[in-house]
Amino acid sequence: QITLKESGPTLVKPTQTLTLACTFSGFSLNTPGVGVGWIRQPPGKALEWLAFIYGDDDKRYNPSLETRVSITKDTSKDQVVLTMTNVDPVDTATYYCAHKPLGLLHPADFDFWGQGTLVTVSS
Amino acid sequence: DIQMTQSPSSVSASLGDRVTITCRASQEIGTSLAWYQQKPGKAPKLLIYAASSLHSGVPSRFSGSGSGTDFTLTISSLLPEDFATYHCQQAKKFPLTFGGGTKVEIK
Fold this sequence. Notes:
Chain A is an all-beta fold and 123 residues long. In chain A, 0% of the residues lie in helices and 48% in strands.
């Protein structure tokens, strides 16, 4: 059974760096073609994809955030970490990590999601 | 970036109704489209992948169709647990993009 869970601060101040961890189980992120993505959702708004990492360590970023966001994986801990620098109140959102399954029919969609963690950016 | 436009943004329907939601991509994406259901305070759940394939455990009253730029999600007969917000997502190209969501409300 695949599970993911996000963890990190609930409140950060503007200009600070946000670090979120996604701890997963039920799959290996050493498998090429498997991946983990980060997606966020500001209160009452649409979903926004942030970053993605494949099992072979290939990484993709949303160009609108690319200069501020970094994604890494630690397979020994079964974790994926998202770092976002210089946060602003507009970054207030629920942040989700999600699993991309193996297979040609799943180029980049997500079959299992974490519960999400609400991060508020405020002084 | 590929823009995903969902319509309507909200729909009021009664139990037993057939509901259809549309998602249009700004460029051709083949069948690389997923649909998710999200209830308040919860994470999205995958319903449909590859435009028309039902994810494991999803009831057969949900179906997806389309290819290219135009896609639909249909709920054949609305049940109480189907009142939620539905999102489409293109999985063809990075950056991955989502539609604005369609809220299915009780009439």
